[in-house]
Design goal:
The complex is a heterodimer.
Chain A: E1 7-20, E2 23-36, E3 40-44, H1 51-58, E4 66-75, E5 78-79, H2 85-94, E6 96-99, H3 113-124, H4 130-143, H5 160-172, E7 178-182, H6 190-207, E8 210-214, H7 218-224, E9 227-232, E10 235-241, H8 242-247, H9 252-259, E11 310-313, E12 316-318, H10 328-332
Parallel strand pairs in A: 3-8, 3-9, 6-7, 7-8
Antiparallel strand pairs in A: 1-2, 1-4, 4-5, 9-10, 10-12, 11-12
Helix pairs in contact in A: 3-4
Chain B: H1 3-33, H2 38-43, H3 49-59, H4 65-78, H5 92-127, H6 132-146, H7 149-163, H8 188-194, H9 198-235, H10 238-245, H11 250-287, H12 293-302, H13 306-334
Helix pairs in contact in B: 1-13, 5-6, 5-9, 5-11, 6-9, 7-9, 7-11, 8-9, 9-11, 11-12, 11-13, 12-13
Classes of the chains: A alpha/beta, B mainly alpha.
């Protein structure tokens, strides 16, 4: 990424709380980050770290018993949190669109592929006649490598890879500015996955798309993303340029995460690193830094106070006491 | 239509044969096990044993049971049911020709009401889950389900033809209009339209309202609940969230996307409920003096009219069998995933 980064989305202090029977569960906790125009931002973390919830929250798709309990989402200068239902409908699909985890269940089983695409177009552009919408759908779907004859098919008649491409097509058909791809390629085999990642990159270059790539697959992020955001237990652990984070992880969690990726150069006698402990129960998160019970470098302060997300070098944010001044009173105690 | 689909339909039709056979066999023997016979129940003890035996002989009741049984199976096969055994011994076919249309005319609007009202209010309740309208509709579904048909019918009669006389009490049409009315098909509503007899049509429709609403309401409860539960489940599916993420309006998601998917399990239920509908029709016809199959069945059971009862049951069984085949065929058109 060059220097003239233009911000598309500013997320500030975003929290999502689920009201469960066991009490409130903070799935996303005071998350702040920016998304720049034309970039691919990778979001990684273990299952249940809140990355999917965060993605949905960007579209205000959190349904009861969950709610966005605090924060702002500034999209192209407008606060999405202030939108009413009608503005929200217009925003979803047209400005921001989402490619879902499971292509097998994310299409309506009794609706043909072309009906999906035409509906998406006509909901947002009621003046577009069906034929024009169909033409657009056809062009797009062919660009994604599906023959236009398949438009007449029902979802169950398509292979997993094709369905995922249809999902991507649905994400692209309205030329949304931001695509949230939530484990978009996880359910596919590696060959199809590699092809689609290539397509993502091409689409980004061609349409100047901005993509938020949510995945638990770090290797995938390394291939495709410009920047990376590591999440842990509903919080941001680290944000930075992808090569910088991979070469010099700052947060102990990022470090552990990178060390647990199998590597071809790994010595046979050396065992793959396994991070100790488990992610915390988010209805009762640990005091202080949420990672401290699993952290090898934990200090006394880590159990008492939560660190701030600090910019340690331009564009590099870390949420860890190792990289910030400790408050005096705690240091003396 | 593919060859496999044709095979499926043929197999499906063949499979209804044992169902119908078991049912009519059961009715045949149960009727004969019941105390009383057509002669005694109609003529009482005054008739001498000799006279009674003469009638038995005339009706063929003196023949061995298995011969009577196979005779009856032949009747069902040819749909030529012979004569009734009591009250004038009219040919059953002629009786059915008049009464079956009356029953269909009653059950079709009842079924439409049940299905349309049940499904849409169920969808509405699911859409407004845990809001007062949802609780109200659920309460309503229990109440109408728990009330017996004849009681609900009686209640309506008291309310709408006695207290607030806006609807006729019973019957199929006003007796005053009978002389001007000339049925062709015995589907009176259709006949009134065909002969352009508008006063008769008005009277027919007025008479139809109470019985069909009564019958329809009773079955609405299960439909409402089934639709609601299925809808709530469907509304949690990924494709609904995905649709929402595309900015598709909530109403469209509920009443188009979710409802079309929910309709698939409900279709099965419509087929199953049809049998209940016919049972309900028996009671409704009795309450409203509706000259249909149900009332015929009730009077003939009391008279132990073997032939009439087993013939009516055979017709009911054929109907229910046909509906369930129809439902399976409809599946292929409604659910694109079904391929035979």
């Amino acid at each position: 990424m060059s220097n003239q980064k233009e911000t598309l989305v500013q997320v500030r202090d975003l929290s999502v709380t689920y009201h469960t029977r066991l009490g409130p569960l903070s799935a996303v906790d005071h998350v702040s980050f920016d998304i720049y125009k034309g970039e691919i931002l990778g979001v990684v973390g273990e299952s249940g770290c809140g990355k999917s919830t965060m993605g949905k929250a960007l579209m205000r798709l959190i349904m009861p018993p969950g709610e966005i309990s605090s924060g702002h989402i500034i999209f192209d200068g407008e606060d999405v949190m202030q939108y009413d239902q009608k503005q929200l409908r217009d925003f979803r699909g047209r400005r921001i669109s989402m490619i879902f985890q499971d292509p097998m269940t994310s299409l309506n089983p009794v609706q043909r592929v072309d009906e999906h695409l035409i509906e998406a177009i006509q909901v947002h552009e009621p003046q577009t006649p069906v034929e024009a919408a169909l033409r657009r759908a056809r062009t797009l779907i062919e660009k994604l490598g599906i023959q236009k004859e398949r438009l007449r098919d029902y979802p169950h008649q398509l292979s997993g890879g094709m369905r995922q491409r249809v999902m991507i097509g649905l994400g692209l058909v309205l030329n949304a500015d931001l695509i949230v791809a939530d484990e978009a390629t996880t359910s596919l085999d590696v060959i199809v996955e590699a092809k689609l990642l290539d397509e993502f990159k091409k689409l980004r270059d061609e349409f100047n798309l901005t993509i938020l790539m949510i995945t638990h697959n770090i290797a995938l992020i390394a291939q495709i993303a410009d920047r990376i955001m590591v999440m842990y237990a509903g919080q941001v652990a680290e944000i930075g340029d992808v090569t910088e984070v991979f070469d010099h992880p700052r947060h102990p969690y990022t470090e552990g995460l990178l060390r647990s990726v199998p590597n071809i150069e790994l010595d046979e006698r050396e065992e793959l690193y396994k991070m100790g402990g488990e992610p915390p129960n988010l209805s009762r998160p640990p005091a202080g830094c949420r990672f401290h019970p699993r952290c090898a470098q934990a200090m006394p302060i880590c159990a008492q106070r939560e660190p701030e997300l600090t910019e340690i070098s331009p564009g590099r944010f870390v949420h860890c006491w190792l990289y910030q001044d400790h408050p005096q009173e705690v240091a003396h105690a | 239509m593919s060859a496999s689909f044709r095979n499926f339909i043929i197999t499906r039709i063949l499979l209804t044969i044992p169902m119908v056979l078991i049912l009519i066999t059961l009715v045949f023997f149960v009727m004969r096990v019941l105390p009383g016979d057509p002669i005694r129940s109609q003529l009482g003890p005054k008739v001498s044993e000799q006279q009674a035996n003469a009638i038995r002989e005339r009706l063929g009741l003196n023949r061995p049971l298995y011969i009577q049984y196979f005779d009856f199976l032949g009747d069902v096969l040819t749909l030529n049911f012979g004569n009734a055994m009591t009250q004038g011994e009219r040919p059953i076919k002629a009786e059915l020709g008049e009464r079956l249309p009356a029953t269909i005319e009653l059950t079709v609007p009842a079924m439409l009401l049940t299905v349309l009202f049940g499904i849409f209010s169920g969808a509405y309740a699911a859409h407004h889950r845990k809001k007062p309208s949802d609780y109200g509709l659920r309460m309503f579904s229990i109440i109408v389900y728990a009330i017996p048909v004849f009681f609900l019918g009686l209640l309506f009669q008291v309310l709408f033809s006695v207290r607030l006389p806006i609807l006729p009490l019973d019957g199929r049409m006003s007796p005053m209009l009978l002389s001007t009315f000339h049925p062709i098909t015995n589907f009176y509503v259709l006949d009134a339209i065909l002969t352009r007899n508008w006063p008769a049509l008005g009277s027919l429709l007025q008479h139809l309202i109470m019985p069909s609403v009564t019958l329809g309401l009773v079955l609405t409860g299960p439909f409402l609940r089934l639709t609601r539960v299925n809808m709530i489940e469907t509304l949690h599916e990924d494709f609904i969230t995905a649709g929402r993420a595309r900015g598709i309006p909530e109403k469209r998601l509920v009443y188009r996307h979710a409802l079309r998917n929910t309709f698939i399990p409900i279709l099965t239920f419509i087929g199953l409920q049809f049998a209940l509908l016919l049972a309900g029709a028996v009671l409704t016809e009795t309450t409203f003096s509706w000259p249909g199959m149900g009332r015929y069945l009730v009077t003939r059971i009391e008279l132990r009219d073997y032939n009439a009862v087993q013939s009516v049951i055979a017709v009911f069984a054929l109907f229910v069998g046909a509906i369930s085949v129809l439902v399976d065929i409809l599946y292929a058109f409604i659910d694109p995933r079904v391929r035979y």
